[in-house]
Design brief:
The strands form two sheets. This protein has a seven-stranded parallel beta sheet with strand order 3-2-1-4-5-6-9, with helices on both faces. Strands 7-8 form a two-stranded parallel sheet. It is built from five helices and nine strands. β1, α1 and β2 form a beta-alpha-beta unit. It has a single domain, classed as 3-Layer(aba) Sandwich (Rossmann fold). By secondary structure, it is of the alpha/beta class.
Length: 243
């Protein structure tokens, strides 16, 4: 299967490409600089279809945000216009599925009271990266319900590598990049009963703010990096005793 990955300069795209490149044909792209073994490709410049997408079945949209997020107008334009054009090109070219990577940051108003799962509605504040991710998620959902394009939104906790944060106090917002790559791989072949699905991707521990039972039970997500914490959910998504 031929898969296009945006945001090739990001650690997220690199880990995903490393994981799936042995079993899939991977086309790396980046909107800001030409990647090694990849293509300079800015979706904001698209109009209609795109020759680069010929033969591609799935887009993994890692490059939602620009590298520099200091200019709020630039961030919103990069995220919304870039994603909108990419979605339109995906439909025009006949792609099957669009997977994008969002954030759990805009769910933090609820974490003091609950383990937050996909049933909770996001409430972004005025921070521009939260707004950008929120608008992209809503846009992708609209395309899913109005077209034949399948869309999966993966909302991520803060991405780190377990060995790089070893010895630090465990943060309830962490997820290891290798576990995110695993979730992305599972999302490639996940059988959608409709055309849209959201999954929370975080560490599977009692310390985590985020509930991953849906991803564990439905997507087949099996995080391997829990930062020393006790697992919260078993393979069937059931809560394990924290004793």
């Amino acid at each position: 299967m031929k898969i296009l990955i945006t945001g090739a300069h990001t650690p997220l795209a690199s880990w995903i490409a490393d994981r799936i490149s042995d079993t899939h044909e991977v086309l790396l792209t980046d909107a800001e600089s030409e990647p090694d073994n990849g293509t300079l490709f800015d979706p904001r410049e698209l109009e209609g279809g795109c020759e680069l997408l010929s033969g591609v079945e799935i887009i993994l949209h890692c490059g939602v945000l620009p590298t520099d997020c200091s200019d709020e107008q630039q961030v919103l334009d990069f995220a919304t216009r870039g994603t909108y054009n990419l979605l339109h090109a995906a439909i025009a070219t006949g792609l099957r599925r669009f997977i994008h990577f969002s954030t759990l940051d805009y769910m933090t108003d609820k974490v003091d009271e609950y383990w937050v799962d996909e049933r909770f509605k996001p409430r972004p504040d005025t921070e521009v990266t939260q707004l950008a991710h929120f608008l992209v998620e809503k846009m992708a959902y609209q395309f899913a319900i109005e077209t034949q394009l399948e869309v999966i939104s993966l909302r991520l906790a803060e991405t780190v590598l377990e060995e790089e944060v070893a010895g630090q106090p465990v943060e309830p917002d962490w997820v290891d990049l290798r576990d995110v790559a695993q979730a992305a791989e599972m999302a490639l072949d996940f059988k959608l009963s409709d055309r849209y699905r959201i999954f929370h991707i975080a560490a599977n521990t009692f310390e985590s703010r985020w509930e991953v039972g849906h991803a564990v039970h439905t997507l087949g997500y099996r995080p391997e990096h829990n930062f020393g914490g006790a697992p919260r959910r078993d393979a069937e998504g059931r809560i394990i005793g924290n004793g």
